[in-house]
Amino acid sequence: MPTVNYYLKKAEKGSGKSLICLRFNYNGRRLVFTFGQSVDSGSWSSKKQRLKQKSATTADGKYLLNDLLDNLKKLCETAYNSEIKSGIPEPATLKKYLIDYMNQNSSDPKRPTLKGLIDRFIKNEIKYKGRDKNKNTIKTYNTVLGHLDEYEQKERLKVDFEGINLDFYYKYVSFLKLKKLSQNSIAKDIQILKVFMSEAVDLGYTSNLQFKHKKFSVAREESDSVYLTEPEIIKLYKHDLTEHKRLEQARDLFVFGCFVGLRYSDYSDVKPENIVKIDGEHFIKLITQKTKELVIIPCSPIVLQIFDKYKKNPNRLPRSISNQKFNDYVKEACEKAKLDEIGRLSTDPKKALWECVTSHTARRSFATNYYLQGFPTIDLMKITGHRTEKSFLKYIRVSKLDTAKRLSEHIKKNWSQKMLKIA
Q1: What is the pLDDT of residues 7-53, one digit of tens each?
Q2: What SS3 state is found at 22?
Q3: Parallel, antiparallel, or unpaired for β 275-278 and 17-26?
Q4: Same domain, 67 and 86
Q5: Residue 231's CB: how many other CB atoms inside 10 A?
């Protein structure tokens, strides 16, 4: 296998320092690359081809010099492995990878950088089909940027377009795991990073396609979430919480969400103009924040009761609060309503039902309950906003017991008909 070696050129006159050179011999070809870093020959280990002093930095003092040598070696080998698939690459082809990498560390303020590109995403300058990103997506962009900042500080290097390769991927995922991020959070982080890199390629900022490698991805785990059955929702709704107004209002808003199927960001922000009357019936009509889809949802009797209860409020609903407070209050309300079944969460079977409830449980409950009642999936998807049946079926929460009960009903129905024929 071709390997990268380093050596020192003859000492420069007057300075006593020697220029570090990268040499890569492969398939009868040779690449020689210099990158502006000179050292005293006495500080160089010819055997290890590295600086004896590990703390030695680059000329500008920004990075560890041995780290730079490691990164250039890995980049050269990665570029070779990528290009050899299309035939033996010319030295100039591989050299471009190295030049691009060094240029990304230049001080030219006009040169595009990965973080500069991310900032354009955060400012909503870069859109998808002309649409602005919602605030939660922008929040995710900021989160990824924060992770990259922390990773740079830990590794003492700068991450830019040419450095996003498989080696970076392995180290970055390990770093995120050390931060105790969940599997799905890491998968989301990598997914967003690939969005940034794809845009960089489209803009001509880089030709690095390592992020498209099949290994450059993290599999998502199916989220282990609960839903409330309609009897459980009614039990919660009927529980007397008049002495706990904050819990009562959070409970009522949660129950409202269970019967409209919207995300919390939408059902907590319903406005008066979203409540419309069509042919004598009340509907909720709005554009969802995340997908910008128009949804029209009929108002069930409980929804109408909640509207009437809060008719003095402009939107006829309880005042919305932060998602975190809402989750805390709903859990407390569910505990008081004695929703304490154990074992509904397979990943933590010791948890009581009330401990597993969040704002998103309302949406899952809506989808799952109507699915179990046999309501057409394609029609439910128009309300939940799922674009494919596959994604919808992953979203609903049908337990093995639910499936067993449905099969039992099917068996009873079919066998009763068969017995009539036999008789």
Answers
A1: 998 876 656 789 999 999 999 999 999 988 999 989 999 999 999 99
A2: strand
A3: unpaired
A4: yes
A5: 8
Tens digit of pLDDT for each residue in 262-304?
999 898 889 889 999 999 899 999 988 887 888 899 999 999 9
Find out whether 335 and 251 touch, Cβ atoms under 8 Å.
Answer: no
Rounded to whole angstroms, the Cα distance separating 215 from 88 reads 23
**Domain check: are 208 and 249 in the same one?**
no
Its pTM stands at 0.59
Residues spanned by the domain of 137:
114-212
Asked if 78 contacts 167 with a C-beta cutoff of 8 angstroms, the reply is: yes
Q: For residue 405, what are its two tokens?
A: 């009960």
Q: Locate 393 and state its tokens.
A: 């079926």
Give the residue from 74, 103, 132 where a domain finishes. Answer: 103
Sheet containing strand 281-287, strands side by side? 275-278, 281-287, 294-298
Shared domain for 184 and 285, answered yes or no, is: no
The verdict on 69 and 172 lying in the same domain is no
**How many degrees, rounded to 5, is the angle at CA 262 between CA 297 and CA 225?**
135
CA distances 275 to 56, 285, 305, Å, are 67, 6, 14
Number of C-alpha atoms within 13 angstroms, CB side, residue 64?
16
**Cβ-proximal residues to 50 (8 Å cutoff; 6+ apart), any chain:** 6, 44, 66, 69
Residue 185: closest CA among 177, 194, 196:
177
